[in-house]
Amino acid sequence: MWSPLPVLHMLRSRIARSPVRALESVATRTWQVAPSDVRVTSRAYFLPDQLDRVTGWVFADEHPGREMHGGLRVEHAPTTAALLERAWLIDGVLYKGEACSHLHPRSQRWPRVRVDREIARAAIACSAPGNRYFGMWLMDDCPRYPLAIAEGEPVTTDQPVAAHVRHYEAWLDMQPTRVGAAFLREAVVFTDIGQNRHKHLRCRALAEKLRARVDTTRHAGVFIVRGAIGERRVLRNELELAERLRDRHGFRILDPMTTDVPTIVAACAGARVVVGVEGSALIHGVQVLEPGAALLVLQPPNRFCSLFKHLTDRDDQHFGFVVGRMQGQDFHVDPDEVERTLDLFPASVRAS
Q: Checking DSSP bridges between strand 29-34 and strand 57-58, what pairing results, if any?
């Protein structure tokens, strides 16, 4: 079988420059999987003048000050689904008529048109952010999998799979069908960006699956090393900070890039506090963090990120941060400020 849609969409975007329609606009049916809900945000834990150091931010439209002070009434979007009939998933792009969604960039310059399989009812279990960032995969695509398997054959795009991904899939009982090019007689797509109650329950269920495999005795905390991986935000005194928290407070030090998933989960489960530089590596710890525990994020001043606070607010955990100071392209965090911020957390978090 083959489809002209990849070529037609490429020509339309290059020649006619027509806007791409959303998949939901060509759906046969749409429905609500879970309702929205409204909650008031908590105040973050931070020292005076920290927010004055922020010079830039990501995944947000405004300076993080208002959000970090808490007290905001936030409506979390519902989880919805849409049914597409006669759709095509080809080289990372899902097509239906004049609509399409790029789940990951095409691997070839010229669009592929042939498909090598047919699926009766697929449920798309991946997202564009999850295909790009490991942290987004763990925090968004893994909770999407239960939605997908309830609606059809859970399908993801076919691309190289890291060892961590395969091991998490095994421990979370996830067996997605990886597709390079397929005709989908029916395809269910989800919108699941809101941190609503239903998503909270799905994430807690995944956390308990992971925690059930390791010793969850409570311990002081874990420092997750980022190093120089991913988009550059190098903390120059990272190891110094990690060793100080280990020697003074009994923290464990974890480098996920040199560690397998069983060791990662065992190190993080039971932690009262997870500490580390903002980035995907932190999600290893956040994924198994208990309600009432805490996350302390070390933020580069030029790219403050609030995403993790959305997760801790959702899961009844505490969020704190320390903003560093730039040193060339990298940044430095004052160790005393880290310890003083840890002291701001509730006594239950600091208990030995």
A: unpaired
Domains with residue ranges and CATH for the chain = 5-32+78-199 (no CATH), 65-72+215-350 (3.40.50)
Per-residue tens of pLDDT for the chain, all 352 residues: 656 565 455 545 555 456 778 899 999 999 999 999 999 999 999 999 999 999 999 989 999 999 999 999 999 999 999 999 999 999 999 999 889 899 988 766 666 657 789 999 999 999 999 999 999 999 999 999 999 999 999 999 998 899 999 999 999 999 999 999 999 999 999 999 999 999 999 999 999 999 999 999 999 999 999 977 777 789 999 999 999 999 999 999 999 999 999 999 999 999 999 999 999 899 999 999 999 999 999 999 999 999 999 999 999 999 999 999 999 999 999 999 999 999 999 998 986 5
How are strands ordered across the β-sheet holding 219-224? 252-254, 219-224, 271-277, 294-299, 318-323
The tokens for 343 are 């002291």
| Three-state SS at 343 | coil
Helices (runs of H) and strands (runs of E) counted in the chain: 13, 19
